[in-house]
From TrEMBL:
GO biological process, any: protein catabolic process
Record protein name field: ATP-dependent Clp protease adaptor ClpS
Alphabetized Gene3D superfamilies for the sequence: 3.30.1390.10
GO molecular-function terms, A-Z: peptidase activity
Domain Adaptor protein ClpS core: 22-83
Superkingdom field: Bacteria
Keyword terms, alphabetized: Hydrolase, Protease
InterPro entries in the record: ClpS_core, Ribosomal_bL12_C/ClpS-like
Lineage of the organism: Bacteria, Pseudomonadati, Bacteroidota, Flavobacteriia, Flavobacteriales
A UniProt-annotated Pfam family: ClpS
Length: 91
């Protein structure tokens, strides 16, 4: 086995080990676009454009992944979304 093949094999193995969780935001009939956008900016550190795009996707598709990362990183963000009255979960 050449060095190049061994390196490629190692990289592929590392990629399989990385498991990222995601926060999924769900549509509801209660919250306004402005509230969702402002909450995403505050809780998930989105730019205004990112937050607006996510709110549109949630409205038309019913859900949207708004953040990915480790569970430890996502838990406080998801908690802030829930405390703001949004429907979200970590999957």
């Amino acid at each position: 086995m050449s060095t190049r093949e061994q390196t490629l094999e190692d990289v592929l193995l590392q990629e399989e080990v990385l498991v990222e969780n995601e926060i999924v935001l769900y549509n509801d009939e209660v919250n306004t676009f402005d509230h969702v956008i402002n909450t995403l900016i505050y809780a998930c550190d989105h730019t205004a454009e990112q937050a607006e795009q996510c709110s549109i996707l949630v409205h038309y598709k019913g859900q949207c992944t708004v953040k990915t990362g480790s569970y430890k990183k996502l838990e406080p963000m998801c908690t802030m979304l829930l405390e703001a009255g949004l429907s979200a979960e970590i999957s």
